[in-house]
Specification:
The chain is of the alpha+beta class. It has helices at residues 10-32, 35-39, 80-88, 90-98, 108-118, 144-151, 314-332; strands at 56-59, 131-133, 190-195, 199-204, 210-214, 231-237, 240-246, 262-269, 275-282, 291-300.
Amino acid sequence: MRPIYSRPKRAQIVRLDEFLLPIRFLLAFVLIVPHGALAQAPDIKRTPWGKPDLNGYWDYHHLTPLQRPAQFEGMTVMNEAQARDWEDNAFNREAERRGRSNPDVNFVGVDLWHEEALDEWETDDHRTSLITDPPDGRLPEMLESRREQLRSRTRYRGYARGPEDRTMMERCIWAPQSVPPIKTLIENAMLQLVLTEDFAVIVTERMHDSRIVPLDARPTLPDEVKQYHGSSTGYWDGDTLVITTTGIHPSYSYQGSSPDMTVIERLSLRPDGRLWYEYTIDDPQTWGQPWTAAYHWKPHAGPTFEYACHEFNYGLTGILDAARAEEHREITGGEEYYRAPKAGEYR
């Protein structure tokens, strides 16, 4: 009878060493190979020139808040029950944020619209905040010098004297969603990304603006040149598209940011087909440290539709007419105001 275990012959030992040799070589290669070479994910869709294929339509609706609410302090992810409750009460939170209790405002149409829209969205993997750094999921403390600047801004708080007293959004010049960073929305949170070897173009649904980003890591424009969308430049860091934007127009402020804000965006394609979008805000005039937020974009069949804002904005005409009517009533002690519309105002 043969024993259960017998000492291997020398020839067997030699063959085992020969088998282990390439494994030892592979382990040595893993230890010395540059990190960037291993960063490429082989299981994602790629362009003909080898970069992650970010082309297509993307949906970035989310119910995850930017900052972590007090009820989730110390938690990065909600459990199933907490996420369900947060999602089910999204409409009530939005209604209260708008001031639904204001007796002088009729929110019926807006409520119906928002109730239907909010019912569709979920949290981003049940996360408690979009902010990932600082670790507490909250914005860093704003500098007192910036608070003083914001308090001392000249702002017209009465009836609008003209279009300049209304926001850029109301004047159909730009929407905040067209300016980096890209922020989650209740509605119109869609975009199209077109990628070539030399450029990336981000076309937002609101306000159908196109941000054209060269991918040769060229310097951004000088600080004294301010554009509504800023000056963007990009490059590939392995499989991550990095976009840096400076020179955003002073009429825009994000969470109280100053015109010196720098936005660094990072876009990475996930094996599950989603896109991980991360942005870092660096503004030493506003915060003592940079801060970072991130969330997923989901692929969408598209297309995006025109956001019907235009320079002959009927709503803005109505706002200014209403301001003149209120002024007239105050001056005359209640006399009604009427101005016949002009055909050129409603094209």
